[in-house]
Amino acid sequence: MSKPAVRLDTPARRARAWYRSLIVEHNLVNTLWLNLHPVDEGKLWRSAQPTPWQLKKLVKKYGFKTVINLRGSKPHRPVYALERRTCDELGVTMADISLFSRRIPDDLMLRELKTLFETVEYPALMHCKAGADRSSLASTLYLHWMKKMPVREAMKSQLRFWPYGYIAASGAGVIGAYFEAFVAYEKKHPGADLIAWSKQWRDRDHRKAFEDSFRKEGRSHLADFFFEKILHRE
């Protein structure tokens, strides 16, 4: 059963939504560090989840026409409801897509993201929760598809601790492992297509075996505790 959408039609409901957004959903942290960086200067930026007032300032400063929300459509969550309301007020398109920081993408997810990059109106702001993991994944893919950058080069540009906060030793390190696996495959099969190669990950058992292997070999339990239990990375 789906949860009811957040309503913002009264002052009390708006105040409650603001409290839950800032405190319960940790959006207050992003008022101190939004993790805002250009991916494609003048066209695409990446960031953490902006608050409504941050979003208003960014739209005014950069002229964003689109906000790409990598957290998916979640109208039952106050942070989403407030962002959607702000975009509507500003006349900015909000495009939702669900990416995951601890699960590798299959070809269906990649096709959806690629189509989005090819069709949205720019300049655009792209964000996840902290601007570190899913934003790094999507930025790598953007550079590969839209700027024709080799996957290895795009990884080095976007999958970085500094300045983005991406931690390869955390559960999100599976993103890097996924790209590394493709790079290794590409060496043996020059000209291989990332989307076509990723069709194999539709198989849940196959994907789970890859992810479990990463957890055993390259994952830090301390990093997981900090990012998943303390910061509640998604």
Features:
single chain; alpha/beta; 5-stranded mixed beta sheet
Give a description of the structure.
The protein is α/β, with parallel strands linked by helices. The chain is built from ten helices and five strands. It has helices at residues 11-24, 52-62, 78-90, 107-119, 134-146, 151-158, 173-188, 194-197, 204-218, 221-230; strands spanning 37-40, 44-47, 66-69, 93-96, 124-127. A five-stranded mixed beta sheet has the order 1-2-5-3-4, with helices on both faces. The radius of gyration is 18 Å and the shape is globular. The model has no long low-confidence stretch (mean pLDDT 92).
What ranges have pLDDT less than 50 throughout 5 or more consecutive residues?
none
* Number of E-state strands: 5
What gyration radius follows from the Cα positions, in whole Å?
A: 18 Å
* Fraction in beta strands: 5-15%
**Overall pLDDT:** 92
Short account of what is shown:
This protein is α/β, with parallel strands linked by helices and 234 residues long. It is built from ten helices and five strands, in the order αββαβαβαβαααααα. The protein has helices at 11-24, 52-62, 78-90, 107-119, 134-146, 151-158, 173-188, 194-197, 204-218, 221-230, and strands spanning 37-40, 44-47, 66-69, 93-96, 124-127.
